[in-house]
Amino acid sequence: MTATLWRGAAQRLRTNPAAVVALAVIAVLVLLALAAPALNPNSVEALDWSQVATGPGVLHAHWFGTDRLGRDLFVRTFEGARTSMAVGLVAGAASLTLGLGFGTIAGYLGGRADYLMMRVIEILSGLPLVFFVIFLTVILGRNGYVLYTSLVAISWLTMARIVRGQTLSIRRREFIEAAVASGGSPARVIMKHIVPNVLGPVAVYATLMVPQIILFESFLSFLGLGTQEPHASLGTLIAEGAGEIEAAPWILLAPGIFLALLLVSLNVLGDGLRDAFDVREPA
Amino acid sequence: MQRYFLKRLGAAIPTLFIIVTLSFFITRWAPGGPFDEERALPPEIMANLQAAYGLDQPVWVQYTRYLRGLVHGDFGPSFRYKDFSVSELIVQGLPVTLELGTLALALALVVGIPLGILAALHRHSATDYVAISIAVLGIAVPPFVVLPLLGLVFGMALHWLPVAGWEPGSVRYLVLPVIALSLPPLAYIARLTRGGMLETLSSPYIRTAVAKGLPLRVILARHALRPALVPVAGYLAPAVANIMTGSLVVESLAGLPGVGRYLVQGALNRDYTLVLGMVILYSSVLIGMGLLVDLLHAWLDPRVRFAQ
Question: Residue of A60, A166, B75, B303 with fewest CB within 10 Å of its CB?
Answer without folding.
Answer: B303
